Amino acid sequence: MHWLDRLAGTFTAMPRFYDPVFADGWGDQPTLSRLRNEAFEIAPIPDIDISWSAPVERHKVRLTRGTFPSPRAELLPPASRLATALRVDPLVEPTSTCLLMASFNDHGYATRLNLATRLADHGIASIILENPYYGERRPSPGQPLRTVVDFFSMGASAVLEGRAILNILKRELPTPIGVAGYSMGGNIAALVSATMSFPVATAGLAASHSPGPVWTEGLLANAIAWDALGGRQRSKEIAGVLGSASVLNFPPQPHSMTAVLAAPTDDGYIPKTAFEDLHKHWPGSELRWIAGGHASVLMWKKDDLVRAIVDSFERLRGNSEL
User: Is the pTM above the cut of 0.70?
Assistant: First the structure.
């Protein structure tokens, strides 16, 4: 485990520094059961209409803010029901467009804007989707994910919103489209890709196949309010519940073989097997290892992450069967 992950994990385990997740327990059981069942299904992609503001130039990119009603508004608190996104375009005609999904606790656009600006250097436009419960969509101060149902609702909504955005891009753009994300964003990006019937470039960066092993085998286990769930003896149960939302539920799509999966060598948050299981499930995908831990790779190896996204588009373009 990288030293920076170990240090971050120490602070995560201290309630005075970190507001624990699931502090209000499991949440409504019928809703949780329904969401678990839905995690094994591919829902129809809803039509959405994104309202875009006037673009603003910032350094070498053009920024445009967009909003649309979330397709799963009934799952979300009122503050999260209006989806918000930031489009980042190079100042030249883009060669492709990538949807960037949010990591855990990724409030706002700053981290992904850094990646998007670097992608613009390669001619790739980005759309940064703000997750439900995060940033402008945060329902209240403090830890927004009060229950396991909140976590499921966030993930299910983010996947459906991401699929809806890609569907619009496919309809409106003549150039290739893709999806990427880091950590939880990588897991959600993989779920989005696994449920798309048309070709999308896919870059799963530090991406587990599901949240299950991440929350029970890695350092994030220290961030859970275990007493509210019935104690740590419920670890296998929470692993099974969160593991319901898995890429392994769905047969590989034809474009899965072109995916690039980039994983830290010394990740303290995601087990190595969670990276490898996703790679094995997508025959033909590339699994590349980046030296470092979960935090250090995101902080100091951004060029490697951007290269993985760029290469995912090149692999998609290079496959004549898609």
Answer: yes
